[in-house]
Design goal:
This protein is mainly β. It contains no helices and eleven strands. The chain is globular and about 40 Å long.
Length: 129
């Protein structure tokens, strides 16, 4: 199996930037499709799915959610077995817990949370106005 650990979250002002990292172990990320998701704190018990933000597939293709396209960039460093999410022009509505995911099942869309088998524990991002 794959273990994922996110880092890089924190507090930033409206319009600021952060870069999130996700270190993978147990497999090479070059063999895996990987993705970033987020969830607004407190919505777990309400049954909301995590929002898919960005996917980097094993063939190098990417897909972005409309809410972040043009502001966020997904990338990876195979030598470090690390996935990144560069977040620019952050807004208060971006405040959430951010997760990386791996193990795409291939039975649905790449931005669907139920399509991934492995998840990190998340890192908090807070954007203040």
């Amino acid at each position: 199996q794959v273990q994922l650990v996110e880092s890089g979250g924190g507090s930033v002002q409206d319009g600021g930037s952060l870069r999130l990292s996700c270190v993978a172990s147990g497999d090479s990320i070059s063999r895996e499709a990987m993705a970033w998701f987020r969830r607004v704190p407190g919505t777990e018990r309400e049954g909301y799915a995590r929002e898919g933000l960005a996917v980097l597939d094993r063939d190098g293709s990417t897909v972005y959610a409309p809410s972040v396209e043009g502001r966020f960039i997904i990338s990876k460093d195979n030598a470090k077995n690390t996935l990144y999410l560069q977040m620019n022009n952050l807004k208060p509505e971006d405040t959430a817990i951010y997760y990386c995911a791996a193990g795409f099942r291939g039975t649905g869309g790449r931005l669907w949370s139920n399509q991934y088998n492995y998840w990190g524990r998340g890192t908090q991002v807070t954007v203040s106005s």
